[in-house]
Design a protein that fits this description.
Elements: E1 3-5, H1 8-33, H2 37-47, H3 51-70, E2 89-90, H4 92-108, H5 113-121, H6 126-142, H7 152-161, E3 166-167, H8 174-179, H9 184-204, H10 207-211, H11 213-235, E4 236-240, E5 243-246, H12 247-252, H13 254-257, H14 279-290, H15 300-318, H16 330-349, H17 356-361, H18 367-392, H19 399-409
Parallel strand pairs: 1-4
Antiparallel strand pairs: 2-3, 4-5
Helix pairs in contact: 1-5, 1-11, 1-15, 2-3, 2-18, 3-9, 3-11, 4-16, 4-18, 5-6, 5-15, 6-14, 6-16, 14-15, 18-19
Amino acid sequence: MNMIFDSFASAQSFFLWAIFSASLILGLVVNKTNFCTMGAISDWVNMGDLGRFRAWMLAIAIALLGVVVLEPRGLLDAGASFPPYRGSLLIWAENFLGGLMFGIGMTFASGCGNKCLVRIGGGNLKSILVFLVIAVIAYFMVNPFPGTDKTLFTVLFYDWIRPLAVDLGRNQDLGTLVGGVENALDTRLWIGLALALALLVYAFSSADFRRSLDNILGGLVVGLMVLAAWYITSNTVIDIDGEQYSLQSYVQEWDFLAESDAGKPADSRPLAPQSFTFINPMGQTAGYSASGFQRAYVTFGVVAVPGVILGSFLWSLLSRSFRFEWFSSWRDFFNHLQGAVLMGFGGVLALGCTIGQGVTGISTLALGSFIAFAGIVLGTALTMKVQYYRLVYEGEAGVGAALLSALVDLHLLPEKLRRLDAV
């Protein structure tokens, strides 16, 4: 059901406030339940505890189920999304390398993009540094340096990594790839239902998980908020003399529909159907600040960032858990700094983070999202394994030996290549 407004201003206001509200709920519940994708991998790798990993899978299942059920009914349009998850150009190398970098980075920086905002809301001053570094890098990865047409992406990556992309000639979602263009909707529905069911069975097959109300609540709410954002951004429309326009199409026809340039957004792309991701929004927030806080630069991402922080802050007050936290040492500072740098580059390259690709992207069944997800999990797991080996061996083990042993532990290399005794 469309949410119909008679002016662009009223429609945009609803769009932004609705996303802010969903972000606030997201931040509050993530803080309350300690939903954390990096923590999920850490628990699995270091302790064999899959509780938070199952919560992550529950979030994916809920979002995926909602998208594949609502899309055939015309209630959601993930095919026209921003960013273009289902685009015909499969940037597999960027997805994987970016995911790998992001996974390594979030391990050093103590959490993913969403967790960074949640930690800020809880009083963690270290995460402010992480946020600022990510924001600047993410901004210049997609926006040119002043006075030039060069971005960080074009300078550092484009010439050698973009040629590896594959033009599929059709959308890259599994429904289109398996069933063809004509049967894409139905095929997506059946693949999505099967995958969502498998994830639900996996999550709830654990008695410990079924007893963990926080893990269930965290996964459920994250999945529902991702779905809610998809729905809001797909169904906010403006009615002009009986003809309906999406926010994006209205801006694209602005000169014909509006009486003046007053209130015109700087870019129509961030008004497309979309859901939560947190690296590019940090960059958008930097752009909004650089513009002098002009309303034309207010986007989904710009309201999502403070929404999550405020939601987390409210819970930290309610639970009396708010406390300031600063770097424990210079080593701690440099770990967070290098982690933020890797997250900024990796999150943009991969086209998203553990939420942006790991939940939102996978809900579209885009092949690139699965590749990015694999890169993130691998990067995080390997980094944690290497850190653990070096800790146990008290720095006597080299990074190479620790890495080879970690790859053996993850069953990615044969046992004969192990260089350190398993720990």
